[in-house]
């Protein structure tokens, strides 16, 4: 998790790291971009639902399990930084005119 959070902060220095609901997340001009959480068997990546729908094929090709709200990356599999980067870039662009934390 530490490696991933450090990577996000270095790759996207304009994003604001925050802790909300006891989990690390990143915002851009006070709008949610992506969040992460830790479970016993996996790391969860939580983009908004629109991002999951957009990247469904890539998520499946990476071999990750996913739900409507998150992607589960098992601890014994490598993190697909390219996929996470694409998700973050999509949200930054897609939400550039948002003024609220969540989509309405």
UniProtKB/TrEMBL annotation:
UniProt-listed InterPro entries? YdhG-like
Pinpoint the YdhG-like domain residues: 1-89
Q: Which domain of life is it from?
A: Bacteria
- Per its record, how is this protein called by name? Iron chaperone
Q: Organism source for this protein?
A: Salipaludibacillus keqinensis
Task: State the Pfam families in the record.
Answer: DUF1801 (PF08818)
Gene3D superfamilies attached here?
A: 3.90.1150.200
């Amino acid at each position: 998790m530490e490696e991933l959070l450090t990577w996000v902060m270095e790759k996207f220095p304009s994003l604001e790291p925050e802790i909300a609901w006891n989990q690390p997340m990143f915002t851009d001009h006070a709008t949610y971009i992506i969040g992460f959480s830790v479970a016993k068997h996996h790391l969860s990546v939580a983009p908004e639902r629109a991002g999951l729908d957009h990247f469904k094929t890539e998520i499946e090709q990476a071999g990750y399990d996913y739900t409507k709200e998150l992607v589960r990356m098992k601890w014994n599999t490598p993190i697909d930084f390219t996929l996470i980067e694409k998700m973050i870039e999509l949200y930054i662009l897609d939400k550039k005119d948002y003024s609220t934390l969540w989509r309405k």
